[in-house]
Amino acid sequence: MIHGLCVDHRLLLGLDPVLAARGTWRRIYLDLPGMGRSVAGPQIRSSDAVAEAVVDFVRENLGGQHFAVLGNSFGGMLARHLVAEFGHRVMGLGLLCPVVVAEKSRRTLPPRRILHADPHLLASLDPADATDYAELAVIQSRGNWERFRDCALPGLRAFDRRAVGRIAGNYPLAVEPEDRVSSFGGPVLLIAGRQDHVVGFEDQLALAGRYGNCTVSVLEEAGHNAHLDQPGQTGALLDGWLADMEDIRRPGAAGAHRAP
Q: Which domain holds residue 93?
């Protein structure tokens, strides 16, 4: 599980009940270098350096095991890199509002829209918290705020600004992951938000064409934190993705391989 930039593993912890319900998956939630409790050394100066740190983590902690990877936003770009690096060892790829076009000026983005504003809620919050919440919230509500407070805000208050600044200054990967591999046959789930004004959804639809076994869902009333905006729909899609991978790895199934 790989989170996005400026947050930490807690952004994705709300998905854990869905993943745990099947009872067969060990979940590993990373804190990327410079975020959460992971320190970024001076060598972390680009997205490529972060990607290599994640590759090293997989090699050191998973050995030769097969694994699935789910990446959100910046973590989606890193998840794609893992597919390019490990190939058939990756059982499935989950992309949650992933970065597809690294250069912001080249992204196809919808206009910024707030579908439901709650000025009373914002006025009740700490001003800094209200600003961070309002930047991404598509539907402002008490429940939506509480999910943001518990999942996103801790990481936003903890990241190493110097380290993240170095990464952001060298943001694109040197080689697009899909240019490194000819094909990937595992189940791919791509979830985008219709109102995601950070990475958009149109570039994500174009990326889906690079994967032969890809399920795409553009969630309505969802922005860049689509899993916080639409937790029920996100959970159902993730459950289906897990089911697809479990079907493949059953004994006798075509392409079955060792369970994680």
A: 9-110+159-249
